[in-house]
Amino acid sequence: xxxxxxxxxxxxxxxxxxxxxxxxxxxxxxxxxxxxxxxxxxxxxxxxxxxxxxxxxxxxxxxxxxxxxxxxxxxxxxxxxxxxxxxxxxxxxxxxxxxxxxxxxxxxxxxxxxxxxxxxxxxxxxxxxxxxxxxxxxxxxxxxxxxxxxxxxxxxxxxxxxxxxxxxxxxxxxxxxxxxxxxxxxxxxxxxxxxxxxxxxxxxxxxxxxxxxxxxxxxxxxxxxxxxxxxxxxxxxxxxxxxxxxxxxxxxxxxxxxxxxxxxxxxxxxxxxxxxxxxxxxxxxxxxxxxxxxxxxxxxxxxxxxxxxxxxxxxxxxxxxxxxxxxxxxxxxxxxxxxxxxxxxxxxxxxxxxxxxxxxxxxxxxxxxxxxxxxxxxxxxxxxxxxxxxxxxxxxxxxxxxxxxxxxxxxxxxxxxxxx
Length: 420
What we know:
9 helices, transferase, elongated, 27 strands, 6-stranded mixed sheet, 420 residues
């Protein structure tokens, strides 16, 4: 028995709980941004991997003064084709094999490898080197600098080999993947993105230009795929089925006749548009019944977007049926699709935020989802908020969740932040 006319919050929560996390896959770190870690990540090398300089200056050992050691040009010094990179690599190899004795120093740059037994780094403007290669402290320097460890980044001070550096369930940001790379990782295990098939119903949809009288411009085809991507899904197919019940049923059924249908049958979510309202031919409900689907939610007590459906198909795929009116469908994506995809991806449930009203909203018949724009930090409800309108949503900074009693200027209401 489906839940009918649920409140927005109950429908949102049920959609999230209906989406069980998908299997893990291993991807390169640079393709993992926005994905959810399938398990803990441990460092495969210490960070930093070697002692390195924090500042330009001299690596020193002992109390000073110091003799500055100069790198031998090496056996490649006579090669005319030797590049600056060759010289840098040769110096790195030389420093790697160098152990400083008390009273010795070597010139270093910030981030560079330090030789063994470096006590600290004397910063460039705090030292003076005479014509004999003797390094002393500048007059304005402290007589005990550098103190032990000054301006030295020690091996493993951020992380040691085998240390947990990221925990499972983390949604990866650019900073996370940079950190994973610095810990020596090339690949990470993340939960698979939900795969989504889009099915657009309705007759008289014009794909280009200004529609003729009796037809309407298709507003779902151009943007639903990007909307799904912004919510964390991957579109694997899009179909326009008009009012053909058999074509719609073919997208919901389990019988795959070709390679494309086989691929889409292994998807996770089907999103349909249109055919859900009480005054329609009930194309979606009829197809769902014929396909043996289980309807979980039949209607949400909001305006616009009341005739929303959430169902589980016979093969386990989830289906969200959006109304045909544009704004009702766009807010329906936030009501059911956003939490469903988050649940499948193993991400946290997207919680509403809060915003202060900059204008009164009168009472209504049910909870309303109203696009708003921010002006001076307060929310101004759009006047373009009827179910068939798109202008208010196109201009919006978010969507208000306005209760039946309405709201007064200065009152704080819940809001849904848009995913772009």
